[in-house]
Write a structure and sequence with these properties.
The structure is a single chain. The chain is of the alpha+beta class. The chain has 3 helices and 4 strands, in the order ββαβααβ. The longest helix is centred in the middle third of the chain and has 18 residues. The radius of gyration is 13 Å and the shape is globular. The relative contact order is 0.20.
């Protein structure tokens, strides 16, 4: 399974991208991991207001039903009291 994503600024200009090859897993697991890694990628680069787009309705519905997913892996990232603001779009 592999994941990847891109980060653009508010003007649509390229900021960066990421990709990784993981072990075995389902398409859903890969999509969820890509969202999680993408949010972490943005957070590490100082983005605190992020619109995350996905083409997976399953991922969209899962995250909408459990919004804690978005920040669960970011708690160990030091960011001086900043609180991320995520918006997920399908």
């Amino acid at each position: 399974m592999s994941t990847g994503g891109i980060l653009r600024d508010s003007l649509g200009s390229w900021v960066g991208g990421f990709s990784s090859k993981e072990g075995m897993g389902s398409v859903l697991e890969s999509e969820l991991l890509a969202v999680q890694r993408g949010l972490h990628f943005a957070w590490e680069r100082g983005a605190t207001h992020v619109i995350c787009e996905t083409d997976s309705i399953e991922v969209f519905l899962l995250i909408q039903s459990d919004s804690s997913f978005c920040c669960s892996r970011l708690s160990d990232t030091p960011r001086d009291q900043a609180t991320p603001s995520w918006k997920l779009e399908h």
